[in-house]
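Reviewer comment 2.1 asked that we show a complete input and output for one of the modelled complexes. We chose the flavin-adenine dinucleotide case, as it is the one discussed in the main text.
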Amino acid sequence: MFDTAIGLTALVFLVVLIRYVIQLTDNNKRLFAITRRGYELELELTRAQVHQAMDQTKRDVRETETMWKGFRRFQVIFKVKEAKDIVSFYLVPMDGRPLPSFLPGQFLTFKLNIPGQKKPVIRCYSLSDSPNHPDYYRVTVKRQSPPPSAPDAPPGLSSSYFHDILNEREVIDVKAPSGQFHLDPSNDSPVVLIGCGVGITPLLSMLNSITEKDSSNKLSNRETWLFLGCHNRVDHLMKEHIETITSAHKNVSLHVCYSSPRASDILGKDYQHKGRVTMELLQQVLPSKNYKYYFCGPPKMLEDFNQGLNAWGVPEKNIQYEAFNSAAINKLTGTESTETESSIKVTFAQSQMTLPWNPSAGSLLAFAEENGIMLDFGCRVGKCGSCATSIERGLVNYLVESAKKPDGRSCLTCISVPKTDLTLNG
Ligand SMILES: Cc1cc2nc3c(=O)[nH]c(=O)nc-3n(C[C@H](O)[C@H](O)[C@H](O)COP(=O)(O)OP(=O)(O)OC[C@H]3O[C@@H](n4cnc5c(N)ncnc54)[C@H](O)[C@@H]3O)c2cc1C
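Response of the prediction step:
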């Protein structure tokens, strides 16, 4: 009897012990599973970081091996009409060497030998395709008509050259890609891209790079809102291409605005909104203001979005825009009516002229032109460095920050104004 009791107690003890061990093992398994999942997540993250770093290293290596200084000869291999007065050029290097990559949003600087011009004409054009096509660069150029205020003025010099003279197989001089207006390749944060008129070109490069697989075959899932502004179907640039890629990518939302739709343009099909792209539209459509904003277009549009986004509370670091001409710079910096010291004297040493500074000229370049002094220039927005002129005496103020800003011994006349009496070697 006693033996049986001991036996039963031992049995119960054994059962309890076994259950305890089983429970402990289960807990351990669960704990292990949790730890393992954490470990896997950490591994995934590390792998992603390693891939990102490797991509960056590959880009850096390719860039140092292939980057060039000064101008390089490129041949036009395709010239494609995209819309009314808008043509794309596909360019390959004559030397057959690989091309450096670029960041979506950057531009090329061209030196054009235009018949009838004494000097080569320098102009910038944004790269309009993604960097995932290492064999060519593409730019998309709009023909510049005379402004409504001067209908008898000649049409744009370089854009007319691109449209009327430059054909397939011809060769032009191109500087390497550059520019501060570009997507940040190091993260996938949500973006709003706004392009009006031909200002859509750098945003197209961004859109294409978001919706294409990159060099390591990865596809971005970056939340992207694309707002496009045009007059109507006639100047609706790359309509089919944009519609095809946006409908194939759930992370991309497209909003097209026609400011003057024709009777044949269909609301809901060709375009989603009648009118211009405005801050009100953005606030109505976007789920929040928490995006990085990239925009490019006419001066008034840049001014409106810059002010509107600031007023909405979007941090400065999340706002990036590209100005295609100096009118935009003047609007954004408020220099249209700048009241800087008008008692300042500016001397152009080579032209042997000393003139009282006229603040309403906007920039030293425009001031020189106003007075019949022709200085070198290119982009007129402080991007290409072509207007760099040495300072013999005095100081200047810059209207905008520029990556090309030279040291104090010279200045970019297109984006500077005199701070003191000034002597330029121009
Ligand atoms: C970073 C950057 C990227 C750019 N990307 C692109 C792009 O992707 N696509 C694109 O199409 N453009 C782009 N541009 C703009 C481009 O560089 C040129 O400014 C544009 O093509 C006009 O140059 P143009 O030589 O044809 O005109 P210009 O000869 O410089 O003339 C400009 C305007 O002035 C008018 N004009 C000429 N003479 C007079 C006169 N006497 N009185 C009054 N008006 C006159 C012309 O009719 C024309 O409308 C970009 C600019 C920058 C800075």
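Residues 191-324 form a domain with the Rossmann fold fold (CATH 3.40.50.80). We note this here for comparison with the apo prediction described in Section 3.2.
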